[in-house]
Hints:
The chain is α+β, with helices and mostly antiparallel strands. Helix content is 11%, strand content 25%. The strands form two sheets. It has a four-stranded antiparallel β-sheet, with no helix packed on it. The chain has a two-stranded antiparallel sheet with strand order 1-2.
Amino acid sequence: MSCFGGDPNFCPECGNVLPLPGIQDVVRCPRCSFCIPVAEFSGLEIRSSVVFNPVEQSTLTLEDEGSSELKGAVIDRRCSRCNKEGMVYHTRQMRSADEGQTVFFTCISCRYQEKEDS
Length: 118
């Protein structure tokens, strides 16, 4: 007995999205290889749509990020590009959880960015 059911767009065994019926006799789930005869799709209308974010919205976000002030604590660290003192930092977990965080430093004078794996 299947765990999933009801929607012909999804595999009744694993819930994965099924490919559209083609010239073959069966529709095969790409995840679990469950097969459904194409005859079961007879008379069904399958529709799909793709919605993109408006271009105006994405460019506004980029402009806002570029013009924003640097946020964070200013530390005593010398910039390797302009040789001035004072950098802002933030951390991110870029690698696996059992390894240290990556520290990103940004110069408050020239906005040069450095990174350090800790």
